[in-house]
């Protein structure tokens, strides 16, 4: 997907303030049993086509509104992911501004996870 220059500049700015982990590090931490909340910030239609095992869905459009209800403790470890790591970076920056101290964005996102051949799940209807 080709992103607009202003969007990429916005993401680059957000990435100066957040932490990122690549898909391999997130997988390693999951395999090691590390405890954190895995949050998919993609759109509902993207989530329905498949997502990471153990993830919950809080799309980019609602995460800032609903995060405090879902995770009231701002020190909750949270890993956000989207399609490629752009929307999750923006969401991580906003959560950081809201006082969440252990939020990271998964660089590479869903596409990187698929390219690595890691497992995915799809909700049955």
In terms of topology, how is this protein built?
Layout: H1 5-15, E1 19-22, H2 23-31, E2 37-40, H3 44-49, E3 56-57, H4 63-70, E4 78-81, H5 87-97, E5 103-107, H6 109-115
Parallel strand pairs: 1-5, 2-3, 2-4, 4-5
Helix pairs in contact: 1-5
Description:
The chain starts with a helix and ends in a 10-residue tail after the last helix. The chain has 6 helices and 5 strands; from the N terminus they run αβαβαβαβαβα. Helix 1 (5-15) packs across helix 5. It has a single domain (25-115), classed as Rhodanese-like domain (Oxidized Rhodanese, domain 1). The protein is α/β, with parallel strands linked by helices. Strand 2, helix 3 (44-49) and strand 3 (56-57) form a beta-alpha-beta unit. The protein has helices spanning 5-15, 23-31, 44-49, 63-70, 87-97, 109-115; strands at 19-22, 37-40, 56-57, 78-81, 103-107. The protein is globular and about 30 Å long. The relative contact order is 0.23. A 5-stranded parallel sheet has the order 1-5-4-2-3.
Quick overview of this protein structure:
The chain is α/β, with parallel strands linked by helices. It has six helices and five strands, in the order H-E-H-E-H-E-H-E-H-E-H.
Q: Would you give the CATH topology?
A: Oxidized Rhodanese, domain 1
- Main sheet record: 5 strands, parallel
The CATH superfamily is identified as Rhodanese-like domain
Order of helices and strands: HEHEHEHEHEH
Find the structural class using helix and strand composition.
alpha/beta
Silhouette:
globular
Q: Mean pLDDT, nearest integer?
A: 96
Strand order of the largest sheet: 1-5-4-2-3
Question: What is the percent of helical residues?
Answer: 40-55%
């Amino acid at each position: 997907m080709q992103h607009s220059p202003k969007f990429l500049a916005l993401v680059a700015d957000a990435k100066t303030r957040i932490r990122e982990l690549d898909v391999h590090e997130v997988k390693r931490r999951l395999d090691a049993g590390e405890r954190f909340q895995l949050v998919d910030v993609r759109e509902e239609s993207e989530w329905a086509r498949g997502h990471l095992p153990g993830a919950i869905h809080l799309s980019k459009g609602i995460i800032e509104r609903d995060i405090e209800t879902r995770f009231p403790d701002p020190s909750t470890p949270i890993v956000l992911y989207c399609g490629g790591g752009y929307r999750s970076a923006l969401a991580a920056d906003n959560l950081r501004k809201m006082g969440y101290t252990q939020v990271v964005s998964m660089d590479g996102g869903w596409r990187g996870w698929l390219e690595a051949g890691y497992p995915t799940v799809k909700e049955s209807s």
